[in-house]
Write a structure and sequence with these properties.
With 150 residues, this protein is mainly α. It has seven helices and no strands.
């Protein structure tokens, strides 16, 4: 454990350590801001605490786990929103590409995006098929007896 870690775990004159106290509401508010993209200083200021105070908390395993979980949740929400919006975005992209009043540079950019998306989808589909074939071959090999890895 580093210098900060040793300070965090050290009992201060009979007071409980930060690890024993658990995350405070203001620290949680700061971690929430950090998970949302704020810098450590912005997060501390937004939660009404000193950045120096937040630094003492952020090294605790509980704080790190809380932050990682919240970032994961934020990413899942963002991805769900993008997936939900994909059909409307695709329709708008096609409208832009096909609209004769669209500036040529914008129409070209929209068309390029459409072709990239199509190509990416084709490649992913082919890879899924290949992966499925590999899994089937592997299952067939394993079913014939012990596999010796050299």
């Amino acid at each position: 454990m580093g210098h900060h870690g040793a300070m965090i775990e050290k009992r201060r004159r009979g007071h409980p350590t930060r690890a024993e106290m658990g995350l405070t509401p203001r620290v949680i508010a700061a971690l929430e801001l950090r998970a949302g993209g704020a810098s450590w200083v912005e997060a501390a200021n937004g939660a009404g605490i000193q950045p120096r105070y937040l630094r003492k908390w952020r090294d605790l395993p509980e704080a790190q786990q809380w932050l990682e979980r919240r970032i994961r949740e934020n990413l899942e929400q963002a991805q769900a929103r993008l997936v939900d919006s994909a059909p409307a975005v695709a329709n708008r992209l096609v409208e832009i590409a096909l609209d004769t009043s669209t500036k040529p540079y914008a129409a070209v950019s929209a068309a390029e995006s459409i072709f990239r998306i199509i190509q990416s989808g084709v490649i992913e589909s082919e890879q899924r098929q290949q992966l499925q074939q590999i899994r089937q071959q592997l299952a067939a090999l394993e079913a014939t007896g012990p596999v010796i890895d050299v």
